[in-house]
Amino acid sequence: MTETLEAIYDKCMANEDNIITILQEIQSKIGYIQEEAVNWFSERTNIPPSKFYGVVTFYSQFHQNPRGKNIVTVCCGTVCHVKGAPRVISKVREDLKLKEDQDTTKDMLFTLERVNCVGACSIAPVVLINEKVLGKVTPSKIVKSLKDYKG
Q1: Does residue 1 sit in helix, strand or coil?
Q2: Which of 17, 93, 103, 111 has the most CB atoms at less than 10 Å from its CB?
Q3: What is the domain range of residue 77?
């Protein structure tokens, strides 16, 4: 871990990067923003951890917990909600055997996340699997789509 953080530090300092770029590098290399990494960078840069966490909690691109290999993103905007997003979410949870308090499968193959809007209302409800856009999704269609990622 220290070796990875040293490499990120050297790269970011050489480019005079900001906190956002440092956090993007951490997440890219480690997979999520670990407390240990934030504390390491805080000590190394004399920037308080609160500044790092302020950025982490403000931007939805940052994640503080490990995520699955495949990210299933369900749009929950008004149009998607009206056209069936809650039924799609329920079916994804059932198919992936996710409990109400879980977003990531135990095998780390899938993470389910909800977003407020993806801006594709004309094809609602919308689901993204690893950024691949699926439109007019039904509960049965999402189950078929997930099979392709189950390996």
Answers
A1: coil
A2: 111
A3: 70-147
Domain boundary among 34, 58, 82: 58
Give yes or no: residues 33 and 95 share one domain.
Answer: no
Same domain assignment for residues 48 and 103: no
Alpha helices in the chain (DSSP H): 2-14, 19-30, 35-45, 49-58, 78-82, 85-96, 139-147
pTM, two decimals, is: 0.78
Q: What is the pLDDT of residue 93?
A: 97
Distance (Å, whole) CA 106 – CA 111: 10
Cα 23 from Cα 2, distance rounded (Å)? 15
**Coil, strand or helix at 6:** helix
